[in-house]
Amino acid sequence: MDEMRPTSGAAAHLGLASLFPTGLQAVYAECRRLYPDQVNPLQVTAIVKYWLGGPDPLDYISMYRNVGCVAQDVQEHWHYISMGLSDLYGDNRVHEFTGPDGPSGFGFELTFRLKREAGETAPPTWPAELMQGLARYVFQSENTFCSGDHISWHSPLDNSESRIQHMLLTEDPQMQPVLTPFGQVNFLQIVGVCTEELQAAQQWNGQGILDLLRGVHVAGGPWLVTDMRRGETIFEIDPHLQERVEKGIEADGSNLSGVSAKCVWDDLSRPPEDEDDSRSICIASQPRRLSDKDTEQIREALRKGLEINSKSVLPPIGGQRQSHDRPQSRKDSLESESSAAIVPHELVRTRQLESVHLKFNQESGTLLPLCLRGRLLHGRHFTYKSINGDTAITFVSTGVEGAFATEEHPYAAHGPWLQILLTEEFVEQMLGELQDLSSREETKLPKEYSWPERKLKISVLPDSAFDSPLQ
Length: 471
Description:
It is a single chain. The chain has helices at residues 8-14, 22-34, 126-141, 195-203, 206-214, 234-237, 240-252, 292-304, 362-365, 368-375, 424-433; strands at residues 5-6, 42-45, 60-66, 77-83, 103-115, 150-152, 166-171, 178-180, 183-193, 258-261, 263-267, 351-352, 356-361, 381-386, 392-397, 411-414, 417-422, 447-451, 456-461. It is α+β, with helices and mostly antiparallel strands and 471 residues long. The strands form three sheets. Strands 1, 2, 3, 4, 5, 6, 7, 8 and 9 form a nine-stranded mixed beta sheet that branches. A six-stranded mixed beta sheet has the order 10-14-15-17-16-12, with helices on both faces. Strands 11-13-19-18 form a four-stranded mixed beta sheet. α1 (8-14) packs across α2 and α4 (195-203) packs across α5 (206-214).
């Protein structure tokens, strides 16, 4: 683990104690350690602070000129550092004060390294808005980021014609974690990547792709400096890297445990007019909503899947997560309990289904081979969570504990949450028939796949099919 850096001494040395809140001192002190000659860097400031009703969660984003490192072949670049995801004030105006032993606020700040173009005398400011956008997501969703995470952005990060349209996250190579009276602050660096590199991270894992990027100078190098003018992917620069990804997937599986998606499912084993129908799409009525407990389990399942365990476990439904004697922090709400606390199936109200029809848009459908090959064949689980409602579809393998789908009843629903248990034999069969979904060429839609003997049907539909409540 990186060395913790107490900041009170540094802050006192800088004479900031009476001017700045303690949490802000901590981040400033670490910046000054790294850039002692840039005492007053250019800074983007939220005009109306978030805690006063403004739209931007980050109070400040400082921008430094980094000369790089000749010995490591690191090019000169601009270094952006956020202030506001951690607890800067310690007075509950933004973040709940939880003391010095846990994370400060969300536990991290964002950084970004952008290649300095020839002739540039000042840093571009568009990365500040990008960082504010990510911060808004964190504050609104209460989901935190971790090293190795990937972010699908689907647009050039600088609104140009660049191929750099997505992001990975990693530890900043120079910024060291700091310890404040309000908790620990880590620094997560944004790394711009191409679509093909994002897809490889989804299929394998973010850390593996980050390691490949570090080995390609023009794609980032050791400090992962983003070059928005990069016109080639690492796989075009060095075709042998694709083979390393394939071997990594085969050996490690995928760390992607789930995605937000356009998806629905239908129960084909009962007529649509049945008033007890628990399908995700209900004609002439509102779809049943996920309970808070179900929602919490799905969120925990997505995070749990990022861990490589000897045995994959779905977090339990039901039960109090923690004592009422202490407030629940945002970070605690996303962390899994002990995997031993599995609720028996008989305590969970589930309905076994005989036949199901799954519907995905093309982007979600292309992840099905990843779900099967990178997750289920490695004894793990994968969840599609609908962006249009409470629908969720979780695929589980026979090695996953805590699932309410079983080999005897492989299709089981808990309200709008469907679980599907697939045996290894069936996964191999499905992979053979879903191969065309792995192609990067444009696929003609709709596409239908059916396994009558398994009573399972999958449709891949255009996005427009998910715009109507009657799909």
